[in-house]
From TrEMBL:
Protein name: MADS-box domain-containing protein
PANTHER family, alphabetized: AGAMOUS-LIKE MADS-BOX PROTEIN AGL29 (PTHR11945:SF773), MADS BOX PROTEIN (PTHR11945)
Pfam families, A to Z: SRF-TF
Molecular function per GO: DNA-binding transcription factor activity, RNA polymerase II-specific; protein dimerization activity; RNA polymerase II cis-regulatory region sequence-specific DNA binding
Start and end residues of each stretch annotated as Disordered: 71-94
Keyword annotations: DNA-binding, Nucleus, Transcription, Transcription regulation
Composition-biased stretches (Acidic residues): 73-83
PROSITE patterns: MADS_BOX_2
Length: 178
């Protein structure tokens, strides 16, 4: 039994769209891994889910690929500046301003996260203040669920921040090319 040809248009049902995204993302990352292995290529991919969650893949890693991309783009930009003298400086100023703004936003988000953590720690559930050995099975399960939920939120925020920093680098390059 062969595969059914799928018409290339947006999937209307949200649940089906999410399943399609997950499967195709996995396939895309697998193909990227194969390309990197077969050709000894360095590559990076950033994909946002229909719900807005970022996913990334990089070989050897996304940061290394982004750094190399930015370094080579800066070399090209320096060559162009030598030819044009002064035309791209306003664009770089805008990119630097945007980068500074994003850095401030990241610092503010870190501060908000620390404040939330302090509130969570101070407003903790009294049941979980006693030693783990004295918790019942139901309390342990509930505690584990809460920890997994917090871990998921932290991982999601870390993915967003990583994707944002990579996109800042990439958007900075786009601005310098224009």
């Amino acid at each position: 039994m062969g595969r059914k040809k799928i018409k290339m248009e947006m999937v209307q049902d949200m649940n089906t769209r999410q399943v399609t995204f997950s499967k195709r993302r996995t396939g895309l990352f697998k193909k990227a891994s194969e390309l990197a292995t077969l050709c000894n290529a360095e590559l990076g991919i950033v994909v946002f889910s229909p719900g807005g969650k970022p996913y990334s893949y990089g070989k050897p890693n996304l940061d290394a690929v982004t750094e190399r991309f930015m370094r080579e783009c800066e070399e090209e930009e320096e060559e162009e500046e030598e030819e044009e003298r002064g035309k791209s400086r306003p664009k770089m100023k805008k990119v630097n301003e945007r980068l500074d703004c994003l850095k401030r936003e990241i610092e503010a988000e870190k501060k908000r996260g620390e404040e939330r953590q302090a509130k969570l720690e101070s407003a903790g559930d009294e049941r979980f203040e006693k030693p783990i050995e004295k918790l019942t099975i139901d309390e342990l399960k509930e505690y584990m669920d809460k920890l997994e939920a917090v871990h998921g939120r932290i991982q999601g925020q870390a993915n967003k921040m990583q994707a944002s920093s990579c996109l800042v680098f990439l958007s900075g390059d786009k601005a310098s090319v224009e």
